[in-house]
């Protein structure tokens, strides 16, 4: 059964810019009572909050915090529960990327940071609100933003790929746990997109038949799937195709197909990323 954001509380991480901002705008447009914005970039966060308030109709709650900090997540969650109530819709969108060979990654600035923001933060954030979402016994939704790179290995994205692979496994397991424990009123959707034109993956080249997608298109498709409670949405159509071929073909054959035909293995060769991006910028993909 589908739901609407009208009259509900929506929380978006990585909400100051890019995809996160678009999700927040959609929540206001659909009549959410409370729209909660989490982001590390305080300046951009306040600007986004002001723009959303100007649209009218929703109470906007901006929180500047580092989602990789369990202490900050816990404190902010307590404030949200007191000020805006239990989120009906939680969108785990915040994410960062490092595009380099694994041995070039710094221990803390790269490996720890990517895993903390991309993998651990969605878990800790969801854990902070899920017991209350379950206890209310009213329809609720969780969107976990993963990536197509969490389904296929990609050179120069080893840590990012690992972080998103973990998100997919955790997110779908959480969905099953909620359904099998009789708590299916909280439904989990996993978004698995290829590259999106947000600036986060500037310089990356989409594989064959997989052009970089417009953020508005992805948000629209993801929002619809979330409201309908769909388990998974993969964009574009080549993403599930790639996963299917990877499962069917022997490894040497797949390496040739992915590397020479679809050019998946070359997609990060010219990656530059967003200049001077905040450490917890918007999610991907």
Question: How does this model look, in words?
Answer:
The chain is an alpha/beta fold and 285 residues long. The protein contains eight helices and seven strands. A seven-stranded parallel beta sheet has the order 3-2-1-4-5-6-7, sandwiched between helices. Helix 1 (18-29) crosses helix 6 (215-228) and helix 4 packs parallel to helix 5. The longest helix is centred in the middle third of the chain and has 30 residues, at 107-136. The chain is globular, with a radius of gyration of 18 Å. Residues 277-285 have low confidence and may be disordered. This is SDR family NAD(P)-dependent oxidoreductase. GO terms for molecular function: oxidoreductase activity, acting on the CH-OH group of donors, NAD or NADP as acceptor. InterPro entries: NAD(P)-bd_dom_sf, Sc_DH/Rdtase_CS, SDR_fam. It holds the Pfam family adh_short.
Relevant terms:
single chain; alpha/beta; Rossmann fold; 7-stranded parallel β-sheet; 7 strands; disordered C terminus
CATH class division: Alpha Beta
Q: Describe the sheet with the most strands.
A: 7 strands, parallel
Care to count the β-strands? 7
Number of helices: 8
- Rg from Cα: 18 Å
Strand order within the widest beta sheet:
3-2-1-4-5-6-7
Low-pLDDT windows of residues = 277-285
Q: CATH homologous superfamily name?
A: NAD(P)-binding Rossmann-like Domain
Beta-strand fraction estimate: 5-15%
Measure the end-to-end span. 28 Å
- On the 0 to 100 scale, the average pLDDT is 93
- How helical, in percent, are the residues? 40-55%
């Amino acid at each position: 059964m589908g739901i609407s954001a009208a009259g509900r509380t929506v929380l978006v991480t990585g909400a100051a810019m890019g995809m996160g901002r678009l999700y927040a705008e959609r929540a206001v447009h659909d009549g959410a009572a409370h729209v909660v914005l989490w982001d590390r970039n305080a300046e951009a966060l306040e600007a986004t909050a002001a723009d959303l308030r100007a649209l009218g109709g929703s109470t906007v709650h901006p929180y500047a915090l580092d989602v990789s900090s369990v202490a900050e997540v816990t404190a902010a969650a307590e404030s949200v529960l007191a000020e805006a109530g239990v989120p009906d819709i939680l969108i785990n969108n915040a994410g960062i990327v490092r595009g380099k060979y694994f041995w070039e990654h710094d221990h803390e600035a790269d490996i720890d940071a990517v895993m903390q923001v991309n993998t651990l933060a969605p878990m800790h954030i969801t854990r902070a609100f899920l017991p209350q979402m379950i206890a209310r016994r009213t329809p609720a939704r969780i969107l976990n933003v993963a990536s197509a790179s969490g389904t296929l290995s990609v050179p120069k994205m080893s840590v990012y790929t690992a972080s998103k692979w973990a998100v997919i496994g955790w997110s779908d397991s959480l969905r099953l746990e909620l359904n099998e424990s009789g708590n299916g009123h909280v439904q989990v959707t996993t978004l698995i997109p290829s590259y999106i034109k947000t600036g986060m993956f500037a310089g990356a080249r989409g594989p064959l038949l997989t052009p970089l997608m417009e953020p508005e298109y992805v948000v629209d498709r993801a929002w619809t799937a979330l409201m309908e409670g769909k388990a998974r949405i993969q964009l574009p159509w080549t993403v599930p195709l790639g996963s299917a071929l990877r499962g069917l073909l022997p490894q040497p054959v797949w390496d040739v197909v992915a590397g020479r035909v679809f050019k998946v293995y070359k997609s990060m060769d010219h990656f530059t990323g967003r200049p001077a991006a905040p450490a917890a910028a918007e999610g991907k993909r």
